[in-house]
UniProtKB/TrEMBL annotation:
Record bears the keyword Signal: yes
One function term, GO molecular function aspect: lysozyme activity
Enzyme Commission (EC) number: 3.2.1.17
Gene3D superfamilies: 1.10.530.10
Reaction(s) the record says it catalyses: Hydrolysis of (1->4)-beta-linkages between N-acetylmuramic acid and N-acetyl-D-glucosamine residues in a peptidoglycan and between N-acetyl-D-glucosamine residues in chitodextrins
Organism of provenance: Araneus ventricosus (Orbweaver spider)
Domain of life: Eukaryota
Keywords: Antibiotic, Antimicrobial, Bacteriolytic enzyme, Disulfide bond, Glycosidase, Hydrolase, Signal
Protein name per its UniProtKB record: lysozyme
One GO process term, biological-process aspect: killing of cells of another organism
Pfam families the record matches: Destabilase
Chain coiled-coil ranges: none
Length: 197
């Protein structure tokens, strides 16, 4: 009887451990170029965008369009114990970026099965959440098109020529103003791209 119980426990432990997620890859930090493209894809990086109810109990804030659970998982930057600290943070681009980076450090994974964790994975996680990020339906969304226009087109056309070869878009020039490269991420660019396809 004891042998049977021990065998049962061994099988149970093996089954449970097989279900636990394992992280075999180191999650890189989200660089500023990727961050800017997540912002562009989310809201055209509209820094005047405030919190809004998207229906069905979904409440999102700021230019990165982030929810309270996302902010919480991202480390709760700006939390001073007041009820609306998450809204204050997420409506501030710099504070929201801290939440995004924290969320990706916690939940970063190879969503597209490319063998590496990169900005394409971060874009999936940002929009779909870490649990659904492997779904390919995102590839047919305006969000994904805006992300690709920014990340692929911007990287080749603008970042290398405007900012050198390091691929980083500067956040400021020392005067605390957010600076984005001049590139059209809006509906006009999406319509032109669709007309070509």
């Amino acid at each position: 009887m004891e042998l049977l119980q021990a065998l049962f426990l061994t099988v149970l432990v093996a089954c449970v451990t097989a279900q636990l997620p394992t992280r075999t890859q180191k999650v890189p930090e989200v660089d500023q170029r990727c961050m800017e493209c997540l912002c562009q894809a989310s809201s055209n990086c509209d820094q005047s965008r405030k919190c809004h109810n998207a229906g069905g109990g979904a409440y999102f804030c700021g230019p990165y369009v982030i929810s309270w659970p996302y902010w919480h998982d991202g480390g709760r930057p700006g939390d001073k114990g007041r009820a609306h600290d998450f809204e204050t943070c997420l409506n501030n681009k710099t504070c929201a970026e801290i939440a995004v980076r924290g969320y990706m450090r916690k939940h970063g994974q190879d969503c597209d099965r490319s063998g590496a964790i990169d900005c394409f994975d971060f874009a999936r996680i940002h929009k779909l959440g870490y649990g659904e990020c492997s779904s390919d339906y995102i590839l047919d969304t305006d969000y994904w098109e805006k992300f690709e226009i920014c990340y692929i087109g911007h990287a080749e056309d603008n970042v290398a020529s405007n900012y050198g070869n390091n691929g980083n878009i500067p956040v400021n020039y020392g005067n605390n103003e957010n600076v984005a490269a001049s590139y059209d991420y809006g509906d006009g660019q999406l319509q032109a791209r669709r007309a070509h396809n």
